[in-house]
Automatic annotation (TrEMBL):
UniProt xrefs under PROSITE patterns: ATP_GRASP
Domain ATP-grasp positions: 133-325
Example GO biological process: SOS response
Name of the protein: ATP-grasp domain-containing protein
Keyword Nucleotide-binding annotated: yes
SUPFAM superfamilies in alphabetical order: Glutathione synthetase ATP-binding domain-like (SSF56059)
Listed InterPro entries: ATP-grasp, ATP-grasp_RimK-type, MvdD-like_ATPgrasp
Species for this entry: Candidatus Colwellbacteria bacterium CG10_big_fil_rev_8_21_14_0_10_41_28
Pfam families for this protein: ATPgraspMvdD, RimK
Recorded superkingdom: Bacteria
GO CC terms of this entry: cytoplasm
């Protein structure tokens, strides 16, 4: 399929480096847009003239007509760049205008097929776990009982309803700075008792909290979906005290990562959920319980796959390259 692939990412994103060499080997043309370098190093132009909308993207050395773009891989967007000498007030304004110029360019591409469209992946689904869980339920997939509230009374009652122990997690993965320190920390999933919630009643009132019934785990799954291809990896998180509550506290010496064959009905349900949400790519997290139930936690529309590929040998990057090269398949 002729045309150019637009890769929307950031200059520091190493994940795309596993896919771009494969596109080179395939003889595919692509344009890498590092959003954190726009509009200084790359820029877009949209023009409405005589009732017709046109556009192009350029980096000073190469210019691509919007009509040439056959597929667009929206890996990630970052804050745009301004001159270091610019006044902070002006810089904020310029970054906002650049952001919306890029957004206008993305949403008016005439022929591109997206992996994934930012209206869905970035605007609708990222951090929207409740919407994701509703989509999972609509496809017949089990999800944990869940509450999102800033009412300590509601959260305490929910915990009591579920045996006095809940899993507390953030709505969206984020990095926090410790008070009075430049040290950064990642917020992981943790289990809290009813007593823990009671002791933190005042803190709960100032921010919404997401809590779920605690689901016993036999093991966990990371399922990467690319179009109709499914790459499932089992994660033996229960073999590690470090990773037991959240496998993102990586403990590779004790937590095995292995290829896993999903039951056909689970595959069907996951693909149906992905189509229902309008996703071409997604990294899905599941729990498998000791009695063999598959429980959906979330899907990340731009989730990482490199470490799974490295540990299991599954050809996820090749699958991404193929679907970008021929998005009609």
């Amino acid at each position: 399929m002729s045309g150019t692939i637009l890769v929307v990412t950031a200059s520091y994103d190493q994940a795309v480096e596993t896919v771009l060499p494969i596109l080179d080997e395939m003889g595919e043309k692509y344009f890498r847009l590092n959003t954190d370098r726009a509009p200084i190093e790359s820029w877009t132009t949209n023009v409405i003239r005589s009732g017709s909308l046109g556009g192009e993207i350029s980096n000073g050395e190469r210019t691509i007509d919007a009509k040439e773009i056959k597929s667009c891989w929206h890996r990630r967007s970052d804050k745009t760049k301004t001159a270091d000498s610019m006044h902070p007030g002006y810089a904020k304004f310029v970054k906002g205008e650049t952001h919306f110029a890029l957004w206008s360019f993305y949403t008016t591409l005439p022929n591109a097929i997206w992996v994934n469209h930012p209206l869905i992946g970035a605007r609708l689904l990222e951090g929207n776990k409740l919407y994701q869980m509703r989509a999972a339920l609509d496809s017949g997939i089990l999800v944990p009982d869940t509450i999102v509230s800033s009412s300590p009374e509601e959260l305490i009652a929910f915990s009591e309803e579920h045996g006095g122990r809940v899993a507390v997690k953030v709505m969206r993965a984020n990095i926090l700075a410790r008070e009075g320190s430049e040290e950064l920390m990642f917020v992981y999933t943790n289990t809290l008792s009813t007593e823990d919630l009671i002791a933190r009643k005042d803190a709960i009132r100032i921010s919404s909290i997401m809590a779920q019934e605690y689901i016993p785990k036999e093991f966990e799954l990371r399922v990467t979906v690319v179009g109709n291809e499914i790459f499932a990896c089992s994660i033996d998180s229960q073999n590690s005290e470090v990773a037991k509550e959240d496998w993102r506290r990586y403990d590779f010496d004790n937590v095995a990562h292995e290829r896993f064959e999903l039951p056909e009905d689970v595959k069907h349900k996951l693909l149906n959920m992905m189509r229902g949400m309008g996703l071409v790519y997604g990294a899905i997290d599941l729990i498998v319980t000791p009695n063999g139930k598959y429980i959906f936690l979330e899907v990340n529309p731009s989730g990482q796959w490199g470490w799974i590929e490295g540990l299991t040998g599954m050809k996820i990057s090749e699958s991404i390259a193929r679907i970008l090269a021929d998005p009609t398949t």
